[in-house]
Write a structure and sequence with these properties.
This protein is of the alpha/beta class. It has 4 helices and 4 strands. It is flat and about 45 Å long.
Length: 118
């Protein structure tokens, strides 16, 4: 069981998002970005990472999703189920857990911006 802490976990799905968040280290000294080598994940892996973050006591989890990889079935419906699963905050006071999970969807144009800008 994790101890509730005022901290956020950012789950990026691919290398483009990783480079963007890594650039935040220039502004926010002491910021650590994990994993060091992100990869495109499937829905099951993403759900497991979210559950792990909740168990570790993060009070906010931000999921940056490449929506172009979720455009077709069955990925689209699996992704929608995952978003619905975490639509409400997780609140387990007896276990000392409270967490809000937010999903941010990126498209190819966003990735191109990251590549050109960073």
């Amino acid at each position: 069981m994790g101890k509730l802490r005022n901290a956020a976990l950012i789950l990026g799905e691919g290398p483009t998002e990783f480079y963007y968040f890594k650039s935040l280290c220039d502004v926010f000294k002491g910021l650590t970005i994990k994993p060091d080598y992100p990869k495109h994940t499937n829905i099951k892996d993403l759900d497991a990472k979210i559950a792990e973050g909740v168990a570790m006591g993060f009070n906010r989890i931000f999921c940056i999703i490449d929506i172009d990889t979720k455009a077709r079935e069955p990925e689209r419906s699996q992704y929608e189920r995952l978003k619905n699963k975490y639509a409400q905050p997780i609140n387990k006071p007896k276990k000392g857990l409270y967490c809000e999970v937010k999903f941010f969807e990126t498209h190819r144009c966003t990735e191109l911006f990251f590549l050109y800008y960073f």
